[in-house]
Q: What sequence folds into this?
């Protein structure tokens, strides 16, 4: 078996160690004898997202976001096509925002998102920046779990039809909001950095299963030893005084 | 004499008699008088040093070099670079009429607050070492920091001493039309490379947004570059290091050979900024050589403790600094143990994701026998290494005393990497263990 990952704008949207997510996906595949190929794609580069099983896009500063959004808009139909063919998506922060309707920055300048979903994002003033450790409770593909990460975003994302998780500690989509991210059966979009996957191996494995599904149907993954992963997550849950 | 100044001075001498330093007097001063710092009559030479990495070392080297020229110099040599530290420094070194008693002040200022201090301190020169991605939760985006500094330097008429090999720093020089801009630069060395996996900033021209073209990289995004479209980056160095001899730990600038206090490229950049500053101020820069060759790095900068075998500790704050420390560790011969203390207190930055931007995979080297992960986020560090295939070599020992004792028992050279708030507690443990 094999997974092909498309890593969008690896050289621009690479804030807060988001690249760690790729490393986790890769390692967890290889340990199970699943081949994992990662291709990067930057501005102007010709790649067909439908050739891939998982589409990954991380976060960037406003400046980087301004550099890429036009390029992303040009790829709208190609991404739609990949979505129609069951490609899995992991979108973090800026990647999350740009899949919605629009992003309006602090100066009121609006950049268009690819508009696959109804949500939109408006940058908050400095006092309402969502920043700090975050813990959430989520249910994905029938599995219920707690996840931890670090959020750091000024953007306030509103009108989210189906959030990824309920916030146990932290902010989520908006300052002091109760919900985090966006999710459907193919797409996981979130503000959670940390990076997200090392401390939340459950999510990593769900993404691997979703990616494999495109060409292999439902696959049962071999269990891995996640002692360190769980310990790292539990240390944070404990600090945030979340039990069980 | 003003009451505030008198109180602050008294408080400082009482604390000093009790064997305590610190910025408490400065904190008091700023509570009593918000404009305290602006009240001082500054010496004729005021050098402000700022940037992401190398501020403390650079400002200490400049201070010592000015002393070598016979000047009386005050400086915040321990790196107390926030307003309270600066207020303390000035109060302690002034007479009762706010006259700072020195020929020169060399002041390290935090890059996030330098825009607030700049006018108060009446600088004759501003030295900018570099801008790297730092603790983002504390610093915000680097773009904001640079813009704020550009705001205060726009009409500055003094000397700007700038790293000409850092695209983010050059922006300050390009925009300051009134200042006397002096760039320092280092020519290609045997360790320079044509490509890099380290640069996270400085990939694009700040003027037109198109990719910058690099002739070579020294480390991170530091190197020689230019924009092929608008020629951004084509600078004329005021002070150029023409060659670096890593075998002998020397470098040449102009017709002189200097000794580097540490045999690394970033140390050469520190030295270059010092020479550039002296030259700009009209001082004899060759006087700096005795300072360079005898300079001892400050606490936690390559500091050695005699455990059963030598143990070298280094402070790390961000990916670039970490990458350089890792290179240094691996350049040392022989088998070794490594111990990493990762904390996430205020001064470390609450967000530890930066460890994924640093090249810890370099520890996947046969000379590294074992890696201990310690500190508040020990497990995050362990995971970082696990996903580099180092699973069999890592052990988590959360308790820092036990971690140091473990290193001591192994009878092998060891290298400790510690974040800011882990540094001093770890040094205290090392001092104790080194004696026993």
A:
């Amino acid at each position: 078996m094999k997974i092909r990952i498309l890593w969008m704008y690896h050289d621009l949207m690479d804030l807060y160690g988001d690249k760690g997510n790729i490393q986790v996906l890769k390692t967890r595949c290889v340990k199970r004898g699943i081949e994992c190929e990662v291709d990067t794609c930057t501005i102007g580069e010709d790649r067909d997202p439908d050739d891939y099983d998982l589409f990954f896009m991380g976060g960037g500063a406003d400046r980087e976001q301004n550099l890429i959004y036009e390029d992303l808009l040009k790829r709208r139909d190609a991404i739609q096509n990949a979505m129609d063919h069951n490609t899995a998506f992991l979108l973090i922060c800026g990647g999350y925002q740009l899949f919605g309707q629009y992003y309006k920055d602090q100066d009121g300048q609006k950049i268009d998102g690819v508009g696959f979903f109804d949500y939109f994002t408006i940058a908050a003033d400095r006092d309402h920046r969502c920043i700090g450790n975050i813990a959430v409770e989520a249910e994905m593909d029938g599995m219920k779990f707690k996840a931890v990460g670090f959020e750091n975003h000024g953007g306030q994302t509103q009108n989210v039809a189906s959030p990824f998780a309920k916030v146990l500690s932290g902010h989520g989509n908006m300052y002091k909001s109760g919900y985090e991210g966006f999710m459907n059966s193919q797409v996981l979009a979130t503000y959670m950095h940390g990076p997200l996957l090392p401390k939340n191996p459950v999510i990593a494995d769900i993404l691997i299963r979703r990616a494999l599904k495109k060409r292999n149907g439902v696959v049962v993954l071999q269990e891995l030893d996640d002692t360190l992963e769980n310990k790292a997550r539990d240390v944070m849950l404990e600090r945030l005084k979340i039990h069980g | 004499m003003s009451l505030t100044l008198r109180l602050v001075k008294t408080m400082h001498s009482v604390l000093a008699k009790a064997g305590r330093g610190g910025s408490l007097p400065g904190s008091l001063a700023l509570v009593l008088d918000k404009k305290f710092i602006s009240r001082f009559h500054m010496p004729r030479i005021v050098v402000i040093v700022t940037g992401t990495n190398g501020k403390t070392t650079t400002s200490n080297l400049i201070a010592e070099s000015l002393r070598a020229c016979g000047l009386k110099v005050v400086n915040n040599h321990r790196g107390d670079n926030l307003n309270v530290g600066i207020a303390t420094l000035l109060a302690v070194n002034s007479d009762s009429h706010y006259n700072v008693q020195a020929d020169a002040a060399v002041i390290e200022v935090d890059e996030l607050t330098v825009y607030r201090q700049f006018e108060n301190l009446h600088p004759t020169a501003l030295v900018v070492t570099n801008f790297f991605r730092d603790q983002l939760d504390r610093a915000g985006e680097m773009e904001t920091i640079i813009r704020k500094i550009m705001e205060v330097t726009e009409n500055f008429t003094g000397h700007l001493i700038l790293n000409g090999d850092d695209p983010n720093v050059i922006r300050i020089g390009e925009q300051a039309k009134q200042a006397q801009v002096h760039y320092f630069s280092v020519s290609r060395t045997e360790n320079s490379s044509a490509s890099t996996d380290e640069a996270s900033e400085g990939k694009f021209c700040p003027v037109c947004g198109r990719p910058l073209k690099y002739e070579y990289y020294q480390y991170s995004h530091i190197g020689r570059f230019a924009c092929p479209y608008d020629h951004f980056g084509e600078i004329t160095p005021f002070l150029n290091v023409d060659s670096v001899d890593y075998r002998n730990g020397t470098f040449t600038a102009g017709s002189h050979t200097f000794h580097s206090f540490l045999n690394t490229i970033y140390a050469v950049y520190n030295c270059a900024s010092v020479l550039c500053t002296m030259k700009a101020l009209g001082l004899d820069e060759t006087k700096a050589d005795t300072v360079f060759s005898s300079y001892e790095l400050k606490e936690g900068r390559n500091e050695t403790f005699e455990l059963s075998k030598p143990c070298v500790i280094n402070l790390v704050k961000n990916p670039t600094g970490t990458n350089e420390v890792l290179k240094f560790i691996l350049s040392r011969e022989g088998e070794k143990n490594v111990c990493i203390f990762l904390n996430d207190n205020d001064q470390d930055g609450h967000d530890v994701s930066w460890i994924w931007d640093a090249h810890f995979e370099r520890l996947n080297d046969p000379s590294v026998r074992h890696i201990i992960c310690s500190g508040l986020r020990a497990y995050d560090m362990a995971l970082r290494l696990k996903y580099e295939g180092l699973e069999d070599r890592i052990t988590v020992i959360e308790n820092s005393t036990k971690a140091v004792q473990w290193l001591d028992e192994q009878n092998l050279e060891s290298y400790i990497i510690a974040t800011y708030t882990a540094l001093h507690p770890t040094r205290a443990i090392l001092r104790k263990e080194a004696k026993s």
Remarks:
- Chain B has 14 helices and 17 strands.
- Chain B has a mean pLDDT of 92.
- Chain B touches chain A at residues 136-137, 141-143, 200, 203-204, 209, 350-357, 377, 379-380, 382-384, 386-389, 396 (CB under 8 Å).
- Residues 265-280 of chain B form the longest helix (16 residues).
